[in-house]
Design a protein that fits this description.
With 739 residues, the chain is α+β, with helices and mostly antiparallel strands. Helix content is 49%, strand content 21%. The strands form 5 sheets. Strands 7, 8, 9, 10, 11, 12, 13 and 14 form an 8-stranded antiparallel sheet that branches. A 7-stranded mixed sheet has the order 15-27-26-25-16-23-24, with helices on both faces. A 6-stranded antiparallel sheet has the order 17-22-21-20-19-18, sandwiched between helices. A hairpin with a 2-residue loop joins β21 and β22. The longest helix has 35 residues, at 665-699. The chain starts with a strand and ends in an 8-residue tail after the last helix.
Length: 739
């Protein structure tokens, strides 16, 4: 048995990936097939004695798609720029098109382009422009026809039929104009043929569908880039210690069992165990812990960790695909592969709506051909197709999405996928990471107790001046809180105790309680120290000239709005859970302060995914909110993943929503927007279908006895009016107010 991953072109929706997966799974010699719509690939396990790669690619072609060979993560930057340029160019052309076809009812146009004075040139120009749009949207038509042949019609099928009916009838009208038939007469009176051209409807439908495809593809490309970013966490080279000395080698030349050297400021190259030395390592991308972890001989280290302040040697144990980073990559890919796409309501009903309209139009053609002239029969047939053209149906969902996403963006909420708003409206659980999400994610001085006669400002300046010489992570909190205005001479650092120097003529030391013993200073502040520790603080003493001058509690502080956000979510009947790699004691202290009842602590990335899976297995709709690389698999696996402001690139790329402003109230706003957007889409779909149910019988002539009848021209106008109704309703979403 052999497994291979092939790239696939031509998939645009869940029906495409599902159909291909079903097609491949039914072939003899294929053990299993998994098609990933987001990554645009197919992972196939097959019997290599029965099948070759060329035969697998032929199976993909049979299903109506194209294999691009072995799947690789390509840089699609140039293609993205080219598509964006085309989109802008066609956007400008669409404005010109609408001006020529509809604007001249209100605005002047050159005489040679006037529908009344130069109908032949007018029709020819509109036809030529429409051909450009047909070429631009050819991929939509191909997919629509394929879906129809595979008996799974979708939105592409609806668009294809709508464009085909409008274009076909318009070509017929154009031919009549070219042959000198400027005016025609029907039961409702005399009309100009130029009024019955519907080329602009073809152009507008194609343009908006392409706009949606562009946004969707950009989202998928970011997901692919996320995996690239994960791989790049590890350094490209490492220093390996051999018997004859040290040598810097590429990371892919490291072998299991090699001894690797890591100095201050460098990254750990592969997973392993320290054999000598030690240091403080930043493992936030794995554990979510904001405080660097002290590592010594015998401790394990993870590839991508940053060495803050020490020197150590470690033995390479897990390299390549076996490393922790590779495991996270696997989890992200698995999450994107198993996440169920939310089917569009319009796609669900298209399987009935499209064949029904075709059948009705065909029956009308046959019946009318029997009882009236063939010209009238064709007119009835085209009228039914034009009046049933899915313009309003096609606009119902994407327009509401565009308006609501624009509203979100203006408020600092970046929604990357249209499905996210529907998923968020159904969510009943919000899972928060702790560090960097509910808290600020960086150490700050939570409390300062001054035991000296000096002003607290002076105490902070002295502390900042000393800590400015230190490389310890806690030092940054003091440098930010005070002003390092004094020189720190004769600087000495005692690992595990603290630091000392002469500052402004005074002997100054800073460190933990053990430092007091080292200095021979009696600790008379153990009660205050214990109280700060109970609140999850790290303890720092400031000693000036042999006396304790101040006691500091250093902690990762809770965000100002976090408690109110938790309370508001609870009011909306949304359960709140904390999920963190931090220790349970600290996590429960913060959860109690915020009013969060459920806490899952001491978890690694794979366990975070398990926690999300467990909630989903209980029938919950889960929103995950985090900021670190360690959160990326859980963000991808949740129904909705939200990355907070300041999060890592991989977390933002793995998520569905990015909060561009550091304000957790935006999560509450997202729920409100999603709820109202889904309601708006349902209203739009109702009116779109109501329009068709009302207008199709009229188009068939069912009310001709009462003097109610329409021509293709009136059908086109009514189609535009139905679209305007949908547009007006969608624009109401702009009135939503944010917190």
């Amino acid at each position: 048995m052999k497994k291979i991953t092939l790239g696939v072109e031509g998939m645009s929706c869940a029906a495409c990936s599902g159909g291909l997966e079903k097609h491949l799974s039914g072939k003899e010699g294929i053990i299993s097939a998994s098609v990933n719509l987001v990554m645009a690939n197919a992972t196939i396990e097959y019997d290599e004695e029965k099948l070759s790669v060329k035969e697998l690619e032929a199976f993909i072609k049979e299903a109506g798609f194209k294999s691009t060979g072995l799947f690789v993560l390509k840089d699609e930057g140039k293609a993205h720029v080219r598509q964006k340029t085309l989109l802008i160019a066609y956007g400008v052309l669409t404005v010109v098109f609408l001006y020529l076809s509809m604007g001249q009812m209100f605005l002047p146009v050159p005489r040679f382009l006037s529908m009344h004075h130069s109908p032949v040139i007018y029709a020819a120009v509109l036809f030529s422009l429409t051909v450009l749009y047909l070429i631009y949207g050819s991929d939509i038509f191909i997919k629509g026809i394929r879906s129809l042949f595979h008996r799974s019609p979708n939105m592409d099928t609806l668009v294809t039929l709508g464009v085909a009916s409008s274009f076909g009838y318009s070509v017929y009208v154009m031919i009549m104009i070219f042959t000198g038939h400027i005016v025609y007469t029907d039961s409702l009176g005399e009309h100009m043929y130029t009024d019955s051209l519907y080329f602009e409807s073809c152009a507008v439908i194609i343009y908006f569908i392409k706009l949606g495809r562009f946004i969707d593809k950009a989202s998928k490309n970011k997901t692919k880039q996320a995996i690239k970013d994960l791989v790049q966490i590890t350094p490209e080279t490492a220093t390996v210690k051999y018997a004859d000395g040290e040598k810097k080698v590429p990371i892919d030349e490291i072998n299991k069992g090699d001894t690797i050297v890591c100095r201050a400021g460098e990254k750990v190259a592969v997973d392993g165990t320290i054999t000598s030395g030690g240091a403080h390592l930043d493992e936030a991308f794995i554990s979510g812990e904001s405080k660097p972890v002290s590592k010594k001989e015998g401790d394990g280290v993870v590839a991508g960790s940053v060495n803050y302040d020490g020197y150590f040697e470690y033995t390479a144990e897990r390299i390549g695909k076996d490393s922790t980073v590779s495991e996270i990559v696997r989890l992200v890919v698995e999450a994107t592969n198993t996440k169920m796409p939310i089917a569009k309501i319009a796609d669900k009903v298209s399987g009935i709506f499209v064949p029904a309209v075709m059948a009705i139009a065909l029956v009308a053609l046959i019946v009318c051909a029997i009882i009236m002239p063939i010209g009238n029969a064709i007119t009835t047939f085209v009228t039914v197709l034009v009046v049933a053209c899915p313009c309003s149906l096609g606009l119902a969902t994407p327009l509401a999405i565009v308006v609501s996403e624009g509203k979100c963006a203006s408020g600092g909420i970046l929604v990357k996928k249209s499905e996210t708003l529907e998923a968020a409206s159904k969510a009943n659980v919000v899972v928060f990471d702790k560090t960097g999400t509910l808290t600020y994610g960086k150490l700050k001085i939570s409390k300062a107790v001054n035991y000296s006669d000096m002003p607290i400002e002076e105490i902070m300046n002295i502390a900042a001046s000393l800590e400015a010489r230190s490389t310890h992570p806690i030092a940054k909190a003091f440098v930010e809180a005070g002003k390092p205005i004094y020189a720190a001479d004769d600087f000495v650092g005692e690992d595990g105790f603290g630091i000392s120097a002469r500052v402004d003529g005074k002997k100054v030391s800073m460190g933990n309680a053990k430092m007091l013993d080292l200095l021979g200073v009696k600790n008379e502040h153990e009660l205050e120290e214990a109280e700060l520790k109970r609140s999850g603080n790290s303890i720092v003493y400031l000693v000036i000239d042999g006396a304790v001058a101040a006691l500091f509690g250093v902690n990762d502080l809770i965000k100002d709005e976090a408690k109110q956000v938790v309370a508001e979510l609870s009011r909306r009947k949304i359960e709140v859970t904390m999920l963190t790699g931090d220790n349970r004691e600290t996590a429960e202290l913060i959860a109690a302060e915020l009013g969060i009842k459920r806490v899952i602590a001491d978890v690694v990335p794979s366990e975070k995914v398990k926690a999300i899976k467990q909630l989903k297995s209980e029938g919950k709709r889960v929103v995950m909110c985090g900021d670190g690389i360690n959160d990326s698999p859980a963000l991808a696996f949740a129904d909705v993943g939200i990355s907070v402001h300041g999060g890592t690139d991989i977390a933002m790329n793995s998520s569905d929503v990015i909060l561009m402003k550091d304000n957790l109230f935006r999560i509450v706003d997202l729920f409100e927007v999603s709820r109202r957007t889904v309601a708006n889409i349902k209203q739009n779909l109702f009116w779109a279908f109501f329009y068709n149910c009302l207008m199709i019988p009229i188009a068939l002539g069912a009310f001709r006895w009462a003097g109610i009848a329409i021509t293709p021209m009136i059908a086109g106008i009514s189609m535009v009016l139905s679209s305007l109704t949908v547009i007006a309703n969608a624009l109401r979403l702009r009135l939503i107010k944010f917190n």
